Structure formats: C-alpha cells, structure tokens
Amino acid sequence: MIKSVRGTRDLLPPETALWDFVDSTARDLFRAYNFHEIRTPVLEDLSLFQRSVGEDTDIVAKEMFAWQDRGRAENEKGQWLALRPENTAGVVRAYIEHKLWERPGVQKLYYIGPQFRRERPQKGRYRQFYQIGAEILGPPAAGSESPARDAELLEMLAALLDRLAIRDWTLQLNSVGCAHDRARYNEALRAALSPVVDRMCADCQRRAVTNPLRVFDCKVPEDQPIIDKLPRIRHYLDQPCRHHFAEVQRLLTAVSVPFVLHDRLVRGLDYYEKTAFEFTHGGLGAQNAIVGGGRYDGLSETLGGPRAPGIGFAIGEDRLILSLQKSAEELAKKPDAYIAPLGPGMNAEAARLARELRRHELIIELGDESFRLKKSLETASKIGARYAVIVGENEVNADAFALKNLATGEQVTVPRAELAEKIRL
Ligand code: HAM
C-alpha cells in the first residue's frame, strides 16, 4: 500500500471544518484591516531563499526540499528549484517583480497556504505545514517604517486569537536592531564566543565564524549555559532602533495588547531587523510557537528591489488548530435533509427537488431509487440529517412530499412550495 509521505498528512472531514473555520475567520478579520490576498507559487528559485532567509540558517542549510531541475529542451537551462519553506521571500519577490511600490500607500497582503521544511516530524511539526501570514510593506514615504505598522499588525494578531477563542497565549517581543547594530553585535558575539566555542557543538563552531547570531538557534542542552552568558542585543541598539522599539511598546500598551520582552529571541531567519516577535501557546509542549514574525526593512534591497521596509507574521495553522477549544464535530455542518427517491424513475424527480432546496441554501443529501425506504431512512439517520423527504410516485402526482423528522419520527405531508421553509425550521 502506498502511504502519505513522512511528515505530511491527509486532513479529513470532520477536521477540515476546523481549518475552514480558521481560514474564514482570518479572511474576515484581515478584510477589516484592509489586507488583500496574494497567492505566490509553491515553487521558487532556490537562490530566493538563500539570499533572504539566509544560507546559514537551519531552514536553508538543513531543511530545504531543493533539487536541480533539468531543462526540457536542449536550449533550456537547468535551474535549482525549491519548495517554499516560508512565504515572505515569495511576497517580496512578487512585490519587486510586479512593481507593487507603484500602487498607492503601503501594500497589505495576506496568504494562506502550504510550506515545506524537512524537519524531524513530531506533534505540531510537519514537513508540509500550513501558514496564514500577512505582510505590510512599501516605500518609506508611504509610512512603511512607522512603529504604528508594527503595532497595527500585532494588535490584529491579538484580535484574531481572541476571535478564535484562543486564550492562553503570550506575545514575546524583542528588537534585533538594524544592519548597523547587528554588525557591532556580531563582533561582540564573536569576541565572546572565541574562548568558549571549542566546548560547543559542531554547528555552533561553524556559526561562530560565519553568522554568530545563529548560535541562538542552538537546541543542544549542553550549549545553553554558554549561550545564556552571551552579550544581549539590547545593549547594541542605536538611538533610532531604541526609539522605534519603545514606540512599538507604547502603542501596544495603548491598545491593551499584553507582551513580554524576551531578549534572546532572534528568530531563525536572517532577514529580520528591529522588531521580532513570537506568540507562544501554553498547551502545546515543545512546539509552542504558534506565530512568528518581525520587521525586514532591508529585504527588498537584498533581493535587488527598491527600499521597501516591511513587517509581517506567519501563523502555524497546524499548531493553531491544536490549540483551538472548538471541536470539529461542533463545526462540521450536517445535512438539513436527505431526499429518498422511492422506486424506479424517481431519481430524476428527486434531483429536481434537491436542486430547488439547495437554491434555498439548505444542505441536501441525495439518495438513490434502488434503495428500499428502510435503507434510505437508516442512511439519513446515520449521516445526521435532520429530515428525510420521500419522493415516490404518489408524492410527485400530488406535488406534496412526505417529510419525516428523523429525531422525533413525526411525519407530515408538505406541498412543494412550503418544503424549504418547513425544513429550515
Ligand atoms: P517562522 O517562525 O519560521 O517564520 O514560521 C512561522 C510559524 O510557522 C511558526 O511559529 C510555526 O507555528 C509554524 N511552523 C514553522 N515550521 C513548522 C513546521 N515544520 N511544522 C508546523 N508548523 C511550523 C516565518 O515563516 C516567517 N516567514 C514569518 C514572517 C512573515 N516574518 C515576517 N513576515
């Protein structure tokens, strides 16, 4: 038997009702904040992620699904492709490719879709997982650098979690400074690491040379006491970055979004500047980050575009769903009625009636004329329909149908014109 690939899974009904509930709640809320949907391809040029997320990050160095794609014709060159591990890089690529900066104001874009990372699968961690993300970016003259955008985005996230009735969350907030601060900070980290690095894991020994900030991604328990003693970014922020960070905090307080400061939070992607954040959830165990995000003021220029500061987030939808209080059964809609065609030739009449009732936005399940009445009624009860409508020759001639309430067993005859209303009650 062929099974689904390791780290991927099928989402089946009724669980898909939860996904639908989360997607539609997010879409409705994003509309109120004037965000619009963007859909970028799952396949991208590998170099997009190397240049944005960063070659030294775990995501690019260890977790990419990437391959050299052969050209199909003699004159077509092969190309290194990757399944996207995240969506911010694709959004910024699209922003540059389609000159979205020519549009008025800042771009407020959201996406919902699958991402791919070759991680070790466990609860809340998959190789194909789903993100709901949003990005605000644009020219500085449109206000894209303002801390007001950071606060707006974070308040929107808090509102979404509230709307989904997710309670036990914590917003962890940090500033990772601008490129200039980071250069100074990296020097300080290198200096602090050099006497201790030979006691650290092989990854950290490499990171200490190439990209010291990435040492904070280390999960090896023995390295943690060393990492805890390293200098913290907060002492290396310049005046504008300190001011930006203070302003974000002031605005969040003004809109009553609680947060905790966490100065080890540097995030596992290289493009961040200034604000970096995660939302964690108490009930999730090891994989407790349900949202990650931050500012990426230099990313567009890194990818060859114009200056386009931005900030965004991605919700891990798989994890969000694990932390939902609602049950799938509660959300999955059951049929309002089951139509039971009774006897030869009745499928056409039943189909006609189903079409009429569905136009009234009722959920209708349609049986088959080959079923005996007993089998039809049993099926209707098993799938949770509220009513059964019997479509036999007598009913068709009278243009009135037997309507059976499957909970009470009560049966009445209802003229065609009144049927939809009666079922809705
Ligand atoms: P990230 O922190 O790499 O950020 O991922 C965001 C969220 O995706 C994580 O907090 C987690 O909930 C979920 N996630 C990541 N990997 C997995 C996995 N293997 N299985 C299940 N869930 C996972 C980003 O992706 C950035 N693009 C966020 C962003 C948007 N920054 C600015 N704009």
Give the tags.
425 residues, alpha+beta, five-stranded mixed beta sheet, 16 helices, elongated, binds histidyl-adenosine monophosphate
What layout of secondary structure does this protein have?
Blueprint: H1 16-32, E1 36-37, E2 43-45, H2 46-54, H3 58-62, E3 66-69, E4 79-83, H4 88-97, E5 107-116, E6 128-137, H5 147-163, E7 169-175, H6 179-193, H7 202-210, H8 224-228, H9 239-254, E8 260-261, E9 273-281, E10 289-295, H10 299-302, E11 310-316, H11 317-322, H12 328-331, E12 337-341, H13 346-359, E13 364-366, H14 373-382, E14 387-391, H15 393-398, E15 400-405, E16 411-415, H16 416-424
Parallel strand pairs: 1-5, 7-8, 12-13, 12-14
Antiparallel strand pairs: 2-4, 3-4, 5-6, 6-11, 7-9, 9-10, 10-11, 14-15, 15-16
Bound molecules: histidyl-adenosine monophosphate.
Histidyl-adenosine monophosphate binds at residues 86-88, 117, 119, 124-126, 129, 131, 133, 135, 268-269, 289-294, 296, 312-314, 316, 318-319.
